Input
Amino acid sequence: IENYKQNIEEANTAKDFKVEKKSKQSTNPYINSKIEFKIIDSENGTFGYDISIDGRTSIHQPSIPGMPGNNGFRTKEQAGKTAKFVIQKIRNNIMPPTVTIQELDSLKVLK
Output
């Protein structure tokens, strides 16, 4: 029984080590980055956005992500709200920072 308890303790220690090692590997490379967005003009009087990370344009989104067609958002506010949402994903290291139709709907930027 004593050996059994010792084996369980060693197994738990090994699990703890693996979890710790994994968390070090998933360090967020964007934690100290300067992430900004700029509203851009798009087709038919609509708007999109550019997102830059440390001064370099990383995302050029002239149309509504996940939607068919080339039109952007109806208002600058809708484009900005979506850009801020994408930046939040980048800050949380959710890469690529895709945006679903459900997320756009919950942001209330589709109407």
Remarks:
- The CA atoms of residues 65 and 99 lie 6 Å apart.
- Helices lie at 2-25, 76-91, 101-107.
- The first strand starts at residue 35 and ends at 41.
